[in-house]
Amino acid sequence: MYRVEKVLNHNALIGIPENTTQEYLIMGKGIGFGKHISETIEVTDEHKVYSLKESTDRGDKKELATSIDPVYLEIANEILDGAEAAFNTIDRNVMLPLADHIEFAVKRIKSNEQLKNPLTDDIRVLFHVEFKVAEAARDMLADRLGVTISDDEIGYIALHVHSSIMDQAVSQAMQMADAVRQCVSMVEEETGKRIDTQSLSYNRLLNHIRYMIARTIRGEVIKLDMNDYINASAANSFQAATRICQELGRSLDKQIHEAEIGYLAMHIERVALDEMD
Fold first, then answer.
1. Where residue 268 sits, what CATH number does that domain have?
2. Distance (Å, rounded) from C-alpha 187 to C-alpha 194?
3. Which structural domain, as residue segments, surrounds residue 20?
4. Which of 190-196's residues contact partners 24+ apart within 8 Å by CB, and which partners?
5. Which of 54, 107, 202, 258 is the most buried (most CB within 10 A)?
6. Residue 62 is assigned to a structural domain of this protein
7. End-to-end CA distance of the chain, in Å?
8. Sheet holding 24-27, edge to edge
9. Which of 143, 167, 191 is the endpoint of a domain?
10. β strands within the chain, DSSP E
């Protein structure tokens, strides 16, 4: 049982478990309807309960929860419901930062100051399912607030969704996407060709680079070395991959293992051949 401390709206309130002083944000359809301070309520599995104990980058969680318009808390909570349905297990601690981001995004949209996201196409491919989950925000904002949200903003929401399923901050996910974009740009420069972002080769290349960067950051090494074979069969792509791995390593301040070169070269060769078709 929880004691009501503050009602935010019909679907959200702040409550305290009996015999404790710890505050929680409790969300669920009708949870706050007709409730009064100090009233005791029962919380079931249908409700989502968020601890307000820890702080966030924006400061105290309770202050943040009470400063955000409850409609954005609801939207963020529902987006995470979608993430949970897609990924089974998520970290709901991203809910308040996500709600805060969406509220700020809507303020920008209403002021005609929409934020450009240069990595939208990369995020859509790299974090495909997360992007699909984030797209639910489009109808929610249109239906409830009459606001049209761009794909660029959906991309940023997708990064928050990604951070809920990975032990990775939004800034780290953004760094990953940026590193991938840098790598793709280098591939385009090496091949002298613009890669079609809708092509299967682009999809495969981005996903390979994503996992290559993740392995590099974690210090993991590919067991099978294909370098001699690839260098013999696709020398130009191998040389290009060597230069790219060296440059990307400097950018990441990490040493990219030599075995990665051959695998990246395979994807560069595939891109080059596809572009010639």
1. 1.10.1790.10
2. 9
3. 1-55
4. 190/240, 190/243, 190/244, 190/268, 191/240, 191/268, 191/271, 191/272, 191/275, 193/271, 193/272, 193/275, 195/271, 195/275
5. 202
6. no
7. 66
8. 40-41, 2-9, 12-17, 24-27, 48-51
9. 167
10. 2-9, 12-17, 24-27, 40-41, 48-51, 55-56, 59-60
Which residue in this structure is represented by tokens 């002298």?
192
Tokens of 131: 């992007």
Q: How many residues in the chain?
A: 277
Residue 155 pLDDT > 60: yes
Q: Give 58's pLDDT tier (boundaries 50, 70, 90).
A: low
Reported as a single tens digit per residue, the pLDDT across 126-139 is 888 999 999 999 99
Q: Distance (Å, rounded) from C-alpha 28 to C-alpha 96?
A: 15
- How far is it, in rounded angstroms, from Cα 132 to Cα 20? 40
Residues 6 or more apart whose CB falls under 8 angstroms from that of 202 comprise: 125, 184, 195, 196, 271
